[in-house]
Design a protein that fits this description.
14 strands; homodimer; 2 domains
Chain lengths: 397, 397
C-alpha cells in the first residue's frame, strides 16, 4: 500500500456502486479496505457483466486493492467477529436501506459503544431520515427524482440520463470527503461520529447552479443539448466531419472578436446584441443558427488548429476508445493494469489524485470472495486456525 | 462557523467553478476559506448572470460563508502579504493554467519554503504535466474530450452535455477529498505536499464503468437514452402523462416476475430470453418495445403507487421546481437561505453532508469584494490601520 491514507482501516459493508466507489477512492489513496461480504454470494456486483473469463469487469474495476472477508452478520458469532473488528477499525461504511443495521443489532449506537473513535458512514438513496428514508433507490431513480434528467437532452426532447452513474458516484465522492473530514475532526476531539449521505441530496448539491438560476428567475431550467445555461458560445458544434466543443466564459470576452474573425463573421464583433456572454445567452436563438452554419464549413481538426492558435478553448468530442488512446491520458497514467488470477492483467481506470510526497498507487487486483478472511481474522483478531475453521463450519464466515 | 473542519484555514486563489466548488465543500464543513481575489474586478463569476438586484446568483451560491481579501499577486507587496498568509494557512488552492503561479514567483517550492506543513492543491484542465498541460480548459471542453458527451444522448443521436458542470464539479470534489487526505497524512508526517488534480483525469475516473466495459469487450460505449448499460429495466419510461424511472438490478431479479405481472405480461416471466438482468440487456431490442408500450397505459402516479406496493424501485422524473418543492428535500433541509445585504435572503443549495456530532451549517452570505481584507490583514498578520491604507494606495490590495 502507498498513499496518504496508509494506516486508516475501513470495514466496508457496502455493495454495488455508491459505497464501493467511495471505498475505492479511499483505498486508492492507501486506506486498508476490508470488504465485508455475505458468505457464498458476496457483493452482487460480482455477478454484473460484461465478464472477462467469467470474471465481472464491473467488480474488478471498483474493487481493486481491497481485501475480502466473508461474514454472516445475521449469525451471532458473525456479529461477534464484526464487533471485534470494529474495535480495530477507523471507519465503517455501509449502503443498506436505512434500518438494516439496526435490525441486525449493529446500528451506530452499538458500534460506538465498542469504539468511540469510529467514523460510521451510511450512504442511502434518500438519507437516514425523512418521509422517503425507507424506500429503496438505485442510481437512475435519484437521477430522475433529483432533476438532472430533466435538464439533460435536446431542447423540448425527452429526459436523458447522463452517461455515468452520477447518482451513486457523486454520493460516493461526498461520502469519501465527509469521512475524511470526520477523521480530521477526530484528531482534535478523539471522537468519531455518524455520517449520513443521501444520494438524492447529492444530486441537488451537484446541481447548485440549476437551483440558483431557478431561485433567481423563477424559470424552470430546461435541457439545452450541449449548451451551458449561462455562457455562450459554450457548447458542441457539428463540423464537416464530427463534433467540436468550444468554450468562452465571461472573462474571456476578449476572445469573442477573435472567434468572430475565425468564423469569417467580423460583422458580429460590434453587434450590440452579442456583446457579452450573457447577452449572447439571452439572444441565443438569433446567434445559434449563425454559429452552427459557420462551424459546419471545416473539419474538426481544421477548427482545432485554427481556434487553438487564437487561444480559444476548444477540443474534440471524443468517444471512449479515443479517450483511452489519448496522449495526455497516457502521460497521466489514467489507465493502469491490475493483475487478476483468472482474467489476467486487466486495464482499469486509475485514481485521478496525484500527490508529490505520498503518491497513491493502483496496482493490486480485486479480491476473490473471502480471499482474505483467514488473514484478517488471524492478523487483526489473533484467531487460531481451529477457531477460523469452526466459524466456517457454523456458517458465520 | 461549525463543522468538522473548524480550525482549517484555506487560502483560495481559485475562480469560477472547479476551485470555488471545492472550497465551498470544505467551507460548508467548517473550514475558514479566505478567497483571495484580484483588486477591482475580483472573481469573474461575480459578473455571471442571472442576477438578483444586480448580484450574481451564480457567485452567491458558490461562495457563501467565504471571506474575501483583495490582493494583487503581481505587486511586490501583494506577494509579500500573500507569503505571510501562507505561513498561517493549512491549504492553498488555485485553478490557474499551469505555470501561472511560477510566473508570479509563487509556485509550490516557494510556498513550501515558507510553510512546510502547507497542502498546495492545484486544479487544472489537464493537470500540471503532459502534452496538454498548458491548454486552457473549461467544463464543456473536458466533458467533450473526456467522453461523457459521447455516451449521453439518444441512441444514434448527437452528443449531449449532461445538465450539470461535471467537468468542474467532479474535479472540485476529488480535489476536496485529496486535500483532506493530505491533511490526514500531515497528522503523521508533519509535512504538507502538492496535490495535482486534472479535470480531464476526473472525467475518466467518473466513467470507470464505461472504460471497464470497453476494455472487457472492445465495444465503444454508445449513448443509451435513459438506459443503464448493464441492468434492464433500469431507465425512464414514458407514461400516460409524463415519465417514470424504474430500476431493477441483478440481485433484485426476484422482482422481475412482479414487474411482469404489474404490466400485465405474466407471459414474460418464464421467457428464457429475459431471465436475468444481463439477458434482458443483451435482448434489449426485443424487450424495449414491449415494456414501453405497457408503461404508456397508466399515469405516472398510478405506476408509482402500483410499483411501490411491489417494492420495485421507481420514482418520477422531476423538473427542478418539483425537486425544490419535494417533501424529502424539505425534510433534509437541502435548500437553505443565506442573507445578502442587497439581494436579500437568497435560497441556496445546502451541503449534503450530515454529521451527528459536528454538523456542517450553511448560514452566511457570500462576501463583497474585499469585504474581509481589513479583518484578515489585522487579525492574521497584526497589521495596523496605516499599513493597510498604504497597501491600498500602492495597489497591492
Amino acid at each position: 500500500m502507498a498513499g496518504p491514507l496508509e494506516g486508516i482501516r475501513i470495514l466496508d459493508l457496502s455493495w454495488v456502486l455508491s459505497g464501493p466507489y467511495c471505498s475505492m477512492a479511499l483505498g486508492d489513496m492507501g486506506a486498508e479496505v476490508i470488504k465485508v461480504e455475505r458468505p457464498i454470494s458476496g457483493d452482487m456486483a460480482r455477478g454484473s457483466g460484461p465478464f472477462i473469463n467469467g470474471e465481472s469487469s464491473y467488480f474488478i474495476s471498483l474493487n481493486r486493492g481491497k481485501k475480502s472477508l466473508t461474514l454472516n452478520l445475521a449469525h451471532p458469532r458473525g456479529k461477534e467477529v464484526f464487533l471485534r473488528l470494529v474495535e480495530r477499525a477507523d471507519v465503517v461504511l455501509e449502503n443498506f436501506v436505512p434500518g438494516t443495521m439496526k435490525s441486525l443489532g449493529l446500528d451506530y449506537e452499538v458500534l460506538r459503544a465498542c469504539n468511540p473513535r469510529l467514523v460510521y458512514a451510511a450512504i442511502s438513496g434518500f438519507g437516514q431520515t425523512g418521509p422517503y428514508a425507507q424506500r429503496p433507490a438505485m442510481d437512475v431513480i435519484v437521477q430522475g427524482m433529483g432533476g438532472i434528467m430533466s435538464v439533460t437532452g435536446e431542447p423540448g426532447g425527452p429526459p436523458i440520463r447522463p452517461g455515468a452513474s452520477l447518482g451513486d458516484i457523486v454520493a460516493g465522492l461526498f461520502a469519501a470527503m465527509a469521512i475524511l473530514a470526520a477523521l480530521q475532526e477526530r484528531e482534535r476531539s478523539g471522537l468519531g461520529q455518524m455520517v449520513d449521505i443521501s444520494m438524492l441530496d447529492c444530486q441537488v448539491a451537484l446541481q447548485e447552479n440549476a437551483f440558483a438560476r431557478y431561485f433567481a428567475t423563477g424559470e424552470v431550467p430546461q435541457p439545452l443539448g450541449t449548451r451551458h445555461p449561462v455562457f455562450t458560445p459554450f457548447q458542441a458544434f457539428q463540423t464537416k466531419d464530427g463534433y467540436i466543443v468550444v468554450a468562452m466564459v465571461g472573462g474571456m470576452s476578449n476572445r469573442w472578436p477573435l472567434f468572430c474573425s475565425a468564423i469569417d463573421r467580423v460583422d458580429l464583433i460590434d453587434d450590440p446584441r452579442f456583446e457579452t456572454g450573457w447577452n449572447r445567452t439571452q439572444r441565443y436563438g438569433e446567434l445559434e443558427p449563425i454559429l452552427s452554419e459557420a462551424m459546419r464549413r471545416k473539419t474538426t481538426q481544421e477548427w482545432l488548429k485554427e481556434l487553438s492558435n487564437l487561444d480559444i478553448p476548444c477540443g474534440p468530442v471524443n468517444t471512449i476508445d479515443k479517450v483511452a488512446a489519448d496522449l495526455q491520458i497516457a502521460h497521466r497514467r489514467m489507465i493502469v493494469e491490475v493483475p487478476h488470477p483468472r482474467a489476467g492483467p486487466v486495464k482499469v481506470v486509475n485514481t485521478p489524485v496525484r500527490m508529490s510526497r505520498t503518491p497513491p498507487k493502483v496496482e493490486r487486483a480485486c479480491p476473490d470472495l473471502g480471499e482474505h478472511s483467514r488473514e484478517v481474522l488471524r492478523d487483526l483478531l489473533g484467531m487460531g486456525e481451529e477457531e477460523i475453521e469452526e466459524l466456517g463450519r457454523e456458517g458465520a464466515i
